[in-house]
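Lecture 7, part B: from sequences to assemblies.

Below are the input chains for today's worked example.
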Amino acid sequence: MRSLSITYRNLYVLFVLLFLSFVASLICGTILFGPADIVSGLIVHDSSIEHAIIYQIRLPRALSAALVGASLGIAGCLLQVTTRNPLADPAILGVSALSGLALAVTTLIFQDAGPMLRAIACVVGGFIGAVALLLISRGVDSPLRITVVGVAIGAFASAGIVGAITGSRVVLELALGFLAGGLYGAGWFDASLWVVWIPAVSIFIIFFTRRLDNLALGDEVARNLGERPEMTRVCAILFSGLITGAAVSIGGLISFVGLASPHIAAGLIRRAGPSFYIGSMIIGMFIVLCADTLARVVISPSELPAGILTAAIGAPILIYLVRREL
Amino acid sequence: MTPRPAVLSCLDVWISYFDQTVIDGISLEVNRGELVTIIGQNASGKSTLLRALCNLKPIDAGAVYLNGESIDMIPERDFARQVAFLPQSLSVPMGLTVGDLVLRGRTPHYPKYAMRGSAEDHAEVNRVLDQVGLGASSDRDLNSLSGGELQRVWIAFALVRNPEVLILDEPTSHLDARYQKQLMELLVDLKKQDIAILTVLHDVSLAVAFSDRLIGLDQGAIAFDRTVKYGNLVEDISRVLEIDMESIRDSEGDFSVSPKWR
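Predicted structure of the full complex, as structure tokens:
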């Protein structure tokens, strides 16, 4: 089959690119390290500057960036497949913004909220965003309706965030970071979310890939195959809310990754089967890792929000896709 | 010869939306090896009836039976193995090959939590693609197919589960005359393999030429349910479609029926 051999080759290339972008994010920064420094910084736990920077700062940050990209890449796939809308993504459908609103409100109420509470607030917020999307658009069988509902949810949440900012200085400081989206300050706490993420996403992909593939054929056809497309859709959208929340808790509102990754994966791999989700996940990781590395390097020793770079890269991709596909 | 039992039947099916009756007490049977076509005006309830028969539309009263068993009692996946349905408008996901799509039609045979098909499923895909005349096209991109080829791929998608009943909602609607004929001949081939086929067709001349039996639907009720013999066929069809029909009959007794356009 044309698709399978090229699919596996391209997946392999993507893995290599991912590895290179990961290594680059360890090497690059205000101080440039050589490969030998990287290895010793990772392995030798001493009070050296290599260990301090690479192991305590760059490695968890790279892992966090990858987690954000992977989450958005998968959430974008799930939303695009279940709503049959090629422009669906967590940002456009308001899920990210509602997650951000939950964070802002939590910070407003508990001024000294710790990282755990904030992370929980984001994940719960993403989940609420997904529930709102499902409830308000009543079953999500119309791509147009869900898009309009999503935009409305996003507008509401953004207004709420701005309201919370005007209400509190603490929220303002926090919001400056997460509104633009970026990995500033991401550490081992954020990176440790991988421990939960990997089994959850693996199980989800194993269980739902076939169901999602069949759902893409239309609800009636899927039901006539003995599937339960409504159930699949509800589960997939709720799950995308959870992982979007995880991404927001680490990287804030990083745009375009959820939108662009599935399209790039469809172009390079195929829009079906587990390789679609895995491909989109890797592409998301790659984009965010590159954006974060660039963000730290371009105006070093200061840094840009990575979200600005993903938007700068993603907007032309979006325009290209709209011109080509719609 | 003993009469063979109907594979799919319904009794006094009644469906309404709000206070409007859409299906008004319909009873019908479809037998193995039979090609039955439903005709009727737009909004006469044809598509609703098809969906009720394949358990996609809940019915308000009456019952639908598959091999004599009420379909409410049949588990979804068992039902899916036996009754294949293709709606009129089918969404083709981008970037799939012919083989990918047809393989998905095997889903009802998968173990419940299986992700993909077994070697046997792949063999079935190739067998069915041969059957619809697309044996060499398994690796082709769906977007590269002509309308006629795509429709045959969907037929293969429906057939690959080895159904007893094939239900098609206007399978020829986007096809030109040559492909329409090809598709109908394929359906005639399939019914000879003991599959029961129920279709909705808007093209009366196709319906008359290829069906064993015609069911005329008028405002949700059956106006006629008859074999395709010359008799008063033209009058029956004219009455249901509310348009004058004309027929041409040749010396061998073959005939065709079409609307009298002017």
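Note for the exam: DSSP finds 14 helices and no strands in chain A. Keep this in mind when comparing with the next example.
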